[in-house]
Design brief:
Elements: E1 3-7, H1 13-25, E2 30-33, E3 44-47, H2 53-81, H3 87-93, H4 95-119
Antiparallel strand pairs: 1-3, 2-3
Helix pairs in contact: 3-4
Length: 121
């Protein structure tokens, strides 16, 4: 019976490629299920042989630590060079985009609280 070992929801493409390569390097027999046409099914990587499950868990745990360390070092380097993105950078680059989302949020808050405002009058 197949075992789901890696959930693909919100996984960046580079991470997915690295995990696929990791499985291929260690001769892990796996397959991938997509999110489907409307994105309602669960995309994941599955292994076919349940005897490989302990090995896969160990590989993924080691990979997660290595990736976190590497990505943290990349972020620290960008921060040191002053090239990391901040919220202020997003506002400067896309002011209309940010203003539109703020307006939509304000509308949602207004419409959500409107019944309560009229209830207490």
């Amino acid at each position: 019976m197949a075992i789901r070992v890696f959930n693909l929801n919100n996984v960046p493409d580079d991470e997915l490629e690295e995990v696929r390569d990791l499985f291929n390097q260690h001769n892990i027999d796996f397959y991938e299920t997509p999110a489907g046409r409307w994105g309602i099914s669960s995309p994941a990587l599955w292994i076919k042989d349940k005897r490989q499950h302990p090995q896969v868990k160990k590989l993924l745990a080691e990979y997660a630590v290595e990736r976190a360390t590497r990505k943290r070092a990349e972020y620290d380097q960008l921060k040191k060079e002053g090239q990391h993105k901040t919220a202020l950078d997003l506002i400067r680059e896309k002011p209309f985009f940010v203003a539109m989302y703020v307006a939509i949020l304000a509308l949602i808050v207004y419409l959500s609280t409107l019944p309560f405002v009229h209830f207490f009058k």
